[in-house]
Every structure is written in C-alpha cells, then in structure tokens.
Amino acid sequence: AALLTLPRNRGAATYAQTLQNIPETQVTTLDNGLRVASEESNQPTCTVGVWIGVGSRYENEKNNGAGYFLEHLAFKGTKKRPGTAFEKEVESMGAHLSGYTSREQTAYYIKALSKDMPKVVELLGDIVQNCALEESQIEKERGVILQELKELDSNMTDVTFDYLHATAYQGTPLARTVEGTTENIRHMTRADLASYVDTHFKAPRMVLAAAGGISHKELVDAAKQHFSGVPFAYKEDAVPALPPCRFTGSEIRARDDGLPFAHIAVAVEGPGWADPDNIVLNVANAVMGRYDRTFGGGKNQSSRLATLAVEHNLCHSFQTFNTSYSDTGLFGFHFVCDRLSIDDMMFCAQEEWMRLCTSTTESEVKRAKNYLRNAMVAQLDGTTPVCENIGSHLLQYGRRIPLEEWDARIAAVDARMVREVCSKYIYDKCPAIAAVGPIEQLLDYNRLRSAMYWIRF
Questions:
Q1: Would you say 289 and 305 are in contact if contact means Cβ atoms under 8 Å apart?
Q2: 383 and which of 48, 153, 199, 211 could share a cystine (Cβ 3.0–4.6 Å)?
Q3: Catalytic residue among 39, 40, 71, 104
C-alpha cells in the first residue's frame, strides 16, 4: 500500500503550495493613466481585455441603456476596420470575442493564441478609441436589443432581481436596469452613444488585463503603441464621483396568477466591495447554502434550510447572494416555489437568518469556509476567468488580491464573527422585497418586517 501511494504523493501539491505558486500579477501604469496588468503562465492561449469603470449607474433616465447598446456595437467594426474587415481579421486568428456590461463595469475581451497578443491589443485599442458607430449597424442592433428585452421579460429570475434593485434603490441610478428601457433603445441616437464614450472612456478608468502565455513587457509595449490615444482625465476628474445611491426598505409586488411559480427575493443593505465584512457575509451565505430539486442527497443536505426544503417540499430552488457595488450592496436570498408554499418558505428562510445572527456553530462555519475555498479556486480555471479577475479587482480594489490573501481572510472567520456581522446587517433591519407571480400568500410587509428580529426574555 505504501509503494502504491508513493508516486501519487510525489506528484501532488498541497492546497497551500498551490496558492503560493500562482504567478505574480504585474501592474504598470502608463503616462495617460491606463493600468496594464497581467499574469504570465505557460498556456498556449491568452485572454486580453479592457475593463472600464463605467456602467448603468453612470447613466441617466434619458441615456439608460447606452452602455449595453455600445456592447452590441463594439465588435461591429471600427473607423479603421469596417465590419467585414474586422470580422475577417478576427476569424483569421481563430479568436473568440466577448463582452459584458454591468451596473458599474464594462468589459471587452478577446481569447486567442498567445503569439497573437500584439494583434489582440491593437484590435482592443481600435475598439475603445475608434468604434465606428455606423448608422446602419445602430439600426440593426436596435432591433436585436428590442427583441432581447422581450426575451428578458420572460425570465422571471432576472425580472425579480431588477425589481429588487428598483425597490431597494428607488429614485437612484442603481434602480435602473443595465439593458435600459424599450423607449430609450428606440430613440437612442449616434450622438447619444458618442457622447457616452467621450464622457466615460478615459484612460485612468481603464484596465488592460491579460492572462496566459504572454510577456508583461511585450503587453506594456503593445499598450503604449495602441492605447496612447485614449484621453487622459485630469486628476480631479479621473474617476468622477459615483452618483449617490440610498438603500430603502420597501417592496415591489407584481402579482400574476397565470404564472406557474412565485419568484421572491429578499435583501438587506450589504457593504461595498472593499469592506472586510464581505468575507464574513460570504461565509454566512455558504452556511445558509443553496438548493435545487435536481440536486442529489435528499434530506442529507449539509444546509439546514435545504434539509427543511426537502422534508416539507417548501420550494423548487433557493439561492443566496451577496451583490456588491462601490459603496453599497444587496445581501439576501431568492427562492422559487408553489403559490401555497410561500408563507412556509419565507418563515423558514427568515428563521435561518435569525439563527445566523444568534446561534451559528463552529462546525457549520468550518464547512462553509471549505466550500468557499473550493469555489474561489475553481472559478480561476482558465485564462478568461483569470483575466476577468485581474480586470475587475483593479477597478474594485485598486490591486489584485492574491488567492493566498483571500484564503487567510477566510481562515480568520469564526462563528462569533459570523454572528456579529450578520447581526450588524440583518438583525432588526428593514428588508427590500421583490415578488413576481402567484404571490397572494405572501404576507403583508409589516409582518415580514417583524420576522427580522426575535423577542427573547
């Protein structure tokens, strides 16, 4: 038996060794304020992208949806490369293009062979500085986006979370959707899109991130060559002040008895990205767990709430979330259930919240920490998620936080910290609630608010 295990032990690296052997993230700031960051590895491919600190939070009622519209136009050609020429150049490299827009970030990235990194940087620089915004492409994508908006309306989970933002941050930019309104998309002009780019696409608000088989020096040289034309913003307006957002404990109910299931999301105000309480809240979410009827295990779930869901047939699924922004966040849970199970599921979920505040155990926290470590490492498998991690971290924290540091922060959490931090954010707080579907059984807001604390003698 000892001989059989010898080769396996010799070739295996411990978890701690793996964290320590991750390549260092190198960061260089160019003269115009653009940050260039990379993680070098022996991969034959690389992912290079531009992360920009702008999203729907920076939009107003008139141009809400401009960032999402630009995402659709980003890879449709530039002033130097008309649509067909751009597509042929990308196809000749066998590259994969993608992008996304969120409430505070916009990203455009390309995955290609490592040897093609200079060409990828050139294409990204052209996209950011010289997007064509042709009238014909604008009209074409306008129709595509309007169709997408119709499809999004049929996704009840997305609708519920949009309603949750609308009620939690009512009257502020975070209440608006990333995609914008149908009315805005119909009337968005080329001038509106060009103004959005001129206002927000500034070098100090950008990160050129790369991961894979590339050289940091070569990446910086390519960035100097192709991103030098990105406008520099003076120090005082390099990162414009975030539009203020205020959390409000309130609710939105969209009752529709024609829908088969009720979708309900409940959240309290959470901390911003850089707040150390986020790690503790993520551990608390792992204690609460998640569940779907397709999961195996039956009543033997590690999560107490999942066990109750199985035993009493409370819901089809539930998930916890900790959505952070620069200065605020939403910490809560979302579940999908039958119309006659709403009250029971809500009661059990709120009871679980109260238990997190008052009686979380060390064994639960230990299991949750291991789950969190596994999720942390698993999400960085491949050059694309690593590249996204680099770009997002530099915008959110000003640096890339190493996995070893994340692991140390997780290790420092204990049951007492979970109880204290959960009490700080959950106990006796006014929640924001969004409910869609056959929700007649959902109790009055005041009754739900009264379940946010326990009367103890």
A1: yes
A2: 211
A3: 71
